[in-house]
Each structure stands twice: as structure tokens, then as C-alpha cells.
Amino acid sequence: MVTGTTLVPSSPSLHQTKLFLFSGFTQEEEEEMEAITVRLGGKLAARARSHGFVESATHVIFKELKRVEKFLCGCAAGAWILKPDYLYISSYLKIVT
Questions:
Q1: What does the pLDDT read at residue 8?
Q2: Which of 37, 50, 76, 97 is the most buried (most CB within 10 A)?
Q3: pTM > 0.85
């Protein structure tokens, strides 16, 4: 037992680089979200129009949730599965979590 000490679990997600992957968007939509991602300090897990899942992705943003490879692999890998609103709201607040 530790007394007098507060233990705070480290959260790798707070310090880890956020790597984004997109699915189901038009090229124009994807380019817009890539620009927002980069502006907020995130990075792209794969270049636009990538058709497969990238293991290093921490966030996967779907236009529409479908049971496709990127969705299933993202779930299995523990990536955040998100809607596009996540980026738009983060852009408005100027933060990415």
C-alpha cells in the first residue's frame, strides 16, 4: 500500500501521435478532412484513397458505418471509430483528443 502518493495512470493516448484513416468519402471530402487533421497536429495513417486498414491508425473516420475491412480491423486494433463531426468539432475547438 502506498500512502501520501497519488498514482495517476499514464495515458498513452494523450502523448501518442494521432494517426487518422478515412473511409467512404469522396476525394474532395477526404482532402478537406486531411487538411483539418494536419492543421490540428494529427497525421495521416495512409495517403488518400487507401483501400486497406493501416495497423498504426489510432482514429478511423467513416462517412457511413458499414461492416467493411477498415471498420472490423479498426475495432480489433482498438482504434477510435468516429464520424466526420469529430474532426469538424475538433477544428472548431482547435483540439484533437
A1: 38
A2: 37
A3: no
